[in-house]
Structures are given as C-alpha cells and as structure tokens.
Amino acid sequence: MEYGDSLNGSDVKVPNIDKFFEIDPHVKHFEGDIKRRYGMFEKTKERIEKAEGLDRFTQGYKEFGIHVTAENGIHCREWVPAAKAVYLRGAFNNWEKWGHKFQAKEFGKWELFLSSKEDGSCPIEHKSEIMLIIETHDGQFLERISPWASYVTQPDGHGTYKWMFWNPPPMEAYFFNHPRPPKPSSLRIYEAHIGIASWEGKIASYKNFTQNVLPRIKGLGYNCIQLMAVMEHAYYASFGYQVTNFFAASSRYGTPDELKELLDTAHGMGLYVLLDVVHSHACKNVLDGLNQFDGTESCFFHSGSRGRHDLWDSRLFNYSEWEVLRFLLSNLRWYMDEYMFDGYRFDGVTSMIYHDHGIARGFSGGYHEYFGMHIDMESLVYLMLANDMLRTFFPSIITVAEDVSGMPGMCRPVSEGGIGFDYRLAMAIPDKWIKILKECRDEDWDIGNIFHTLTNRRYGEKCIAYAESHDQALVGDKSLAFWLMDKEMYSNMSEVTELTPIIDRGIALHKMIRLITHGLGGEGYLNFIGNEFGHPEWLDFPRAGNNSSYHYARRQFNLVDDDMLRYKFLNRFDSAMQHTEAKYGWLADSQGYVSRKHQGDKVIVFERASVLFLFNFHPNQSYTGYRVGVDKPGKYKVVLDTDEKYFGGHGRNDLSVRFFTENQNFDNRQNSLLVYLPSRCALLMALDEE
Length: 690
Fold this sequence. Notes:
It contains 16 helices and 30 strands. It is an alpha/beta fold. The chain has a domain at 593-687: Golgi alpha-mannosidase II (Immunoglobulin-like), CATH 2.60.40.1180. β4 and β5 (109-114) form a beta hairpin. Pathway: Glycan biosynthesis.
C-alpha cells in the first residue's frame, strides 16, 4: 500500500481544521502539510473500511495466530510473504517437522486446520510447546514463534523464549468481575513496573502487585496506573523497551490470567490502568522476535537503513504495509479487549515521527521543525489511525504521547488535523529540576525560569507533568531524593538520628518541587513507583556489568513501612497532595494564573481551581505579613502545608488561623491578604465555606 500517492493537500477537507487554527494560529502557514497528512489518513481508513471494515481489520488477533474452533479443532493463520512453505510442529505431533503443512493463500497468507482428537478434545494441550517452521526459497528451514503468540516463556529462566499454547479450561480461565471505572477528569498517574515492585531482590509477580501494591496506590490517592514492561521482552534489563512478542504479556511475572486479575482488581478499586505500548520499534531478535520472520530483513520492517534504529539497535516498522497496520492496530485492540486496559502511553513518539528520529536535534520551537520532508508521514498517519480507531471503539480511552519535540497538534483531535492524543508528557520539567539541583545553589534558583519551564506548553494541548519518572531513576542518573540528600540517606533518615541540614533541606524541597510541578506543570501528574516516599539511589537491572544483581532492581517499600524512618513523611505528604487535588480538581482546571514570581524573595504565587498556591523557595528568609493577591474575596484557610510536622516539617504555621481578604488590588488581583510564609515552605489555601 502506498501512502503518499498524489495527495498534495489542496483538495482535502479537514472537518474541524478552523478550530485548530483558532487554538494555534501559527499552524495556518502549514495548512498544506496538515491537509496532506489528513488526506493520507482518510484515504487509508477508507481502504480499510472498503476491504474488510475497521472493526474486523483491527481484530486481526481473532483470525491470525492459533485458535480453537467451536468443534475443538485448531485453525492457524499466518502472514509469511516470503515463505516457500510453512509447517506447525510441537509436542502435539511429537515434534514431527513436516506432518502439518499450511496451505498457501493469497497475499502471503498461510492457513492450517487440525481436527479435534477422537475423544473430541483439542489436539494441542494447554501450555504445550509449539513452533512454526518457515521454509525459504533458498532451502532454509527457520524455527519461528508466531507474531500473534499470546504466551511465551523462558523454561530455564534465560535463553530463547518458547511459544506455549495458551488455552486454559473454562473452569480455570479468569473472568472479569468489574466494569471499567469512569474516566477520571483529573489524571493522577502512578507509573509502575511489575518486576521491581518488591523490596526483595527478585523479579516480583502480577500477584504480588495485585495483593501488595494496588492497595498502596489506592491509599495514596492516585486514580490511574501506568504499567511498564508488560509486552514480552527477552532482555529484562531493556526495561521492556525491546519487545519481542507483542501479543504476549510477560510470563516472567506470571500468567495471562494473573494479569487479568490485576486489571480487574484495579478496576474494582476505581483505578484506570494504562499500558506502556512500544510501537516505535521492535527488538532485533530473530529466534524469538519479529526480525527476519519470513527469512527476509523486511516483512514487518523497512528494508535497508530505514529499517534500523542504530542508537537503539532495533528494527523499525513499515507503517505503510497493509499487514503491519493490521498487526499493530490489532495489538492495541487486543490489550483493550483481552485484558481490559483503559488506554496507552505510546513510547518513543519523537523517534517515530522524524526521519532522523530526533537524534541530536535541539528543538527550538520553530514551526518549520514540525513540517516538511524530514517528517515521517507514514508514522504520523499510523498514530492518527491508532487514536481514531481507539476512540471509535473505546470512547473513554486515554492516550498519552511520549514526545519531546513539542509537535503542534499532537494532542488535538484527528478531525482538526491533529494526531489525536489526549496528553503529551511534559518532558522538559524533570530535566529542569535535575539541572537546578546539579548546578545551582539554592540562593541562585531562577524563579522566572522555573515558572517558564512549568508553564511552557501549547495552548489547548494537555500535558502530564512530573518531577521524575523511570527515565530519571535509571542507572547513570539518580532519584530526586538522592540528588537532594545523596549519601546521607544511608545514615540520617532514621528519626533516632539528629535532623541534619542536608536531610532537612532535602525533605523540604522534595515536597515543594513535587507540589509546584503538580499544581502548575500540566493537566495530569505522574509519579514513578517508590519516588512518592523519596526512594534512594537509582534503578539498575541485573546484567553482566553488575554481576546479574537485583539489588538495584527493586523498590524498597520496607523503608516507608518502617515508622522509625523519615521516608514516611514524604509518603504522607504525597498522599495528602493527591487527595487534596482529588477534592479541588486543579488538574482539570485551566492553567494556573501566576500573580507573583519574585526573584529576590524566591516566591511564586498562583491560583488554580479556586486554590491559592504559595511557594517560598528562599533557603533562610521567612516572611511575616507577606501580601499576596487573590481573585475571590472571603475567608481563607490552609488546606495543605508542606511544613506540617506530620510531613516532616517544623510546624511553623498555625493551621487554625483564618485569613481574611482585603478589598485591595495587588499583583493584578482584585483582592489580597496577608500571610506568614516560612522559608522552604509551600501553602495551599482555599475559601473556608464553614
């Protein structure tokens, strides 16, 4: 299928493009590019509808791979375009190589039917090993796993994955008990990795996460979980970003049914669950991956240099290939239908949409950077198709783009000529915090620059703000808490020891940094597992370079559960922050109005969702009778105080005090009030309705 054809954009009608121009007038200069990509999207979707219908096309997993028929037989279908012959072998036929040969069909498809056994049972037993044999035209016989395999395992814990037939008896199969919860208006995301979700030095399980981690997440006040490294990946240390088997949930954590139980339990708690989906590239493994599936270097991928990502050492999909579109779009439907996920975080979007993958490209914000020949239109059209399809069948879905480039329209509807995501990650924010902590003394913090970084996002396009994610936790970097407190976390986090200046500063700034990011940085918030309580050190998976150690591939929940350690203070504050947002809903409100950003005082004041946010980043200067502007008149109370003793602070504010506004214009606000604002402290105030 050719994407480009002769589309030049001039004859294309984008239904709501004027709304896009109203939101962002600068894109009007690139109307032709926007219309051209929309035309490519529209034409591709029309072809799909005409050929098979979108619903059937995007449920390819029902027709491809291996399936049990109503009569308990087996139906197999594969797309192997370069094959001379295809065979199925396994324990079911005593590993006979040539006994079960597929029949060739049109367009590179192959089919095989197996009748049920004489007793009426399925000819292939549940959890028995099977494989494909691909005979090439040059006489090779290749052992392969079906791209549609739903369960693969490493029998000895390492080495090549094996394809296991997953067909549990009805009495053993898991059935969902809870419907999907309502779509949250304010998105508070807990980013998590199943395998590290334990303090023990081992790979943790789906069951452990269900029983021990889900209650923590719910109790903290998060309403959404983002699960990483679920799609099967042969190399554990890849953090799940070198996917080998796209339809298989990772077996190193347990079975498919145990993942279903995790999702079902989360839904019963009212939690949305997003999957970190990797469609930007694929692992280059041959024996247990997609690479050279039919013996050629192309098949699912571009041939030549365009099909390789040299920096990631991986393969790149050919998004213009009909069967690749079926495979990837069906992959998205599979996890929604089979596991009841509620949405996706799309990894590596920047790499997808630029021919140079955005490598060594310093995006300045100039609009010429987002349009032109250096843009990979095929990838953009795929993302538009994905978002459009998902919204068609799952109206309450949430999709998030990992895009560092800031492409305009990424989070505008496809009907406007946008790419269709709900949110993009505000990736500049964590980089700014790390840069400040590494390079600046506290008294040199640039308040105006902090404000700019937190608010520098495209109007009308929602962002997920975060102070740190898994990227900042990986080896070579450190958690925010470790940047702040470093080696003193080993010796001075016990309440038995004296509160040192470094620990005091670290606890105070950890809370303030996360709170201002939460309040000002976006329309959603994200935290990486363990960082809510200031997890120390970094994250490093077992590999040759660390003697295959799991010491840093874990989350030490035992630290926060120990009431004698100061980690509990950060955990308490994080929970209070999430629950306060749940009550007032600032993430669902428009961007905060910043009335004060005073460099000398190191003070930032803003209002959002009728909440007054006050931050004093000065290391030693407290302010008595400090006047701040506020829009609504009335009696105000403190609803969150980072300096509260319960949160490891000094308790310098009397929370019983009420603050009355004066009809005095200040900082361009109609009213004002006087507050006590201690050093290294943040206050949230709201009208006292009592």
